What we know:
CATH topology: Rossmann fold
CATH class: Alpha Beta
Shape: globular
Largest sheet: 8 strands, mixed
Amino acid sequence: VKVKIPFGNKYLDAIFSVPEKKPTYGVVLTHGAGGDMNFPHLVSLAAYLASHGVLCLRFTCKGLNVAYRTKAFKAVVEYLKLSDDYKLSVVFLAGRSMGSRAAASVIRQLSQEDDGDDDFIQGLVCLSYPLHRPKVQSKLRDEDLLLISCPVLFVSGSADEMCEKQLLEGVVSKMKAPKKIHWIDKANHGMAVKGRTTNDVMEEINTQVFSWLRENIQLQQK
Length: 222
């Protein structure tokens, strides 16, 4: 289902992937610095989640400024929260690369506003989190991650030039939040692995994301 989501004086293009059964939880998903919501990995993940009963709302927000992308992400979360068509009790935010930075930033900001209303967002999925610029490992983009308290899943390539394995493991060890890293062996930032098809890699990512979501939903329902 295609929708236009109001954002300032503009609209963001978005698509709902809707499961057959009425969903109670969903995932809001966005792309990295390049591309848009039709990036093949996002399309694949959205279809997989919807086929397993999870609503997925993915959106496009062009712009290379993280603060701008964060504002857009917030607008989408608000829109979903107030939606009459899909009454969700819980959402998870997810993004690829720069999109995951924006998602982390939204969660940190909303938790700091703390109007007792942050039960809606229950977790964060970071696909290829860009922890540092390529080859510039001295400056880590970890400030939001260290301030988040909801569960976080990282899916990263072990050969990602923007997320050195030991550096991410170091940041994760300092995080207060429940967290998990799934390494895609020998994958680069774009999740390409020599000798493996894109579909094969996506299958691994999609099943990891879904099983993590399911675990966290079950924890909540206990």
